[in-house]
Dihydrolipoyl dehydrogenase
Amino acid sequence: MVVGDIATGTELLVIGAGPGGYVAAIRAAQNGIDTTLVEKDAYGGTCLNYGCIPSKALITGANLAHEAGNAEEMGIHADPVVDMSQLRDWKSGVVDQLTGGVEKLCKANGVNLVEGTARFKDENAVRIAHGGEGQGSETVEFEHCIIATGSRVIQIPGFDFGDEPVWSSRDALEADTVPERLVVVGGGYIGMELSTTFAKLGADVTVVEMLDDILPGYESDVARVVRKRAEDLGIDMHFGEGASGWRDEDDGIMVTTETEDGEENEYRADKVLVAVGRSPVTDTMDIESAGLEADDRGFLSVDECRRTDVEHIYAVGDVVEDTPMLAHVASKEGIVAAEHVAGEPVAFDSQAVPAAVFTDPEIGTVGMTEADAEEAGFSPVVGQMPFRASGRALTTNHADGFVRVVADEESGFVLGAQIVGPEASELIAELAFAIEMGATLEDVASTIHTHPTLAEAVMEAAENALGQAIHTLNR
Ligand SMILES: Cc1cc2nc3c(=O)[nH]c(=O)nc-3n(C[C@H](O)[C@H](O)[C@H](O)COP(=O)(O)OP(=O)(O)OC[C@H]3O[C@@H](n4cnc5c(N)ncnc54)[C@H](O)[C@@H]3O)c2cc1C
């Protein structure tokens, strides 16, 4: 059907149905705002379709196979065979269930859903081009708009994602076979999560990283635990090398790298995964027509309510400058923006933003490190509990890593935490909650924790900071 260019109106237009946009749309509709959500690809955005969810599904499969095949010391003898295409189908089933749920929730909350690509006509209207050729377009006029168009993978010179051996993270998550040899360019969190996953699935993995360590942004003792485990899994890591290109060989491909001094190295592979980061999607929407300007990397600047320089246009999620590109950040920003449109006195508070890395072991962080606290003028006190002293960690056979709690010595307020170890992504929630509630070390230490659990390590780290730890020596 060919649809002509008709104009409709909406109180709030949300562009992009990722965790920033769909959450904003639902919250706005819950507040009685006439809301339209436009999406050009798939409900749930990068997170549900090509990011958080499929990667965690694959990690679960890889962990299960690896654990089962490596439990000899417990008397378990197994040699699991992974059917990659079946694992991929299972993962896709999980994704479909969740994306279908997002669509249903939007409809049930009264959000008008429009499929198509939005471009600004001016600061109060977009033109939405529908689907394929001949599908027509429509103009939607809005009082308020939330830009939630997310991010895309960064492509580097010499590595074209259109070439069959060159993988983006999205290609890696769609793989139906495990490459024998995989070179991963980039030792950030996506690169390391996927390196670990493919190593556990049987690939021979090499990581090349321009910096001198994996996981930039995390403290060196935290990254060290993950690096050591990656080495034990057989992942070969090379630092201070930038990937410069690749060429076909009789047997697979050859990936070339270069150091700062111009020294060249070569690594044989069957696939090369490029995971060097993501850039915001703000260049395909004619934002200038709405009076908006992105910075030189494409990010939009916003105030504490997520308003851009054009006051009735908000931005949330991966397009926003100076906040981490994480799904829960996008969702929180979406809620703040939607509630602000509804007239509520809200602001985005970055004090207790947790982050997790689903490597082996996992990392969970929130708030300040000890160095951050010092820089902010606190006199920090730090408590630590190694997982090797945790009964529950030993019974799961995963006892690498530690819980560290950072607090203000004078007031006892918890300022931050760094966890590297089993279930760190779950455990960090307790400390995010502690910061959010203004809890002190005493509050965390005196809360009765179930035994035997990994969460006891959180309590014990707080006790350690107070000089009262029972199961580890006090500092
Ligand atoms: C492999 C991988 C693993 C990840 N793992 C995690 C994790 O474990 N935890 C975590 O917190 N984060 C993770 N992330 C990051 C997370 O996916 C993003 O931070 C999150 O999706 C950002 O949400 P968003 O709503 O800003 O954008 P997106 O999720 O990117 O959604 C934006 C949506 O906007 C649509 N869109 C764009 N332009 C237009 C337009 N002009 N018109 C209409 N629609 C448009 C897009 O199609 C897309 O659906 C991961 C990312 C990747 C790639």
Summary: Residues 84-108 form the longest helix (25 residues). The chain has three domains: 7-153+279-342, 166-276, 354-466. The radius of gyration is 24 Å. The CA atoms of residues 202 and 420 lie 24 Å apart.
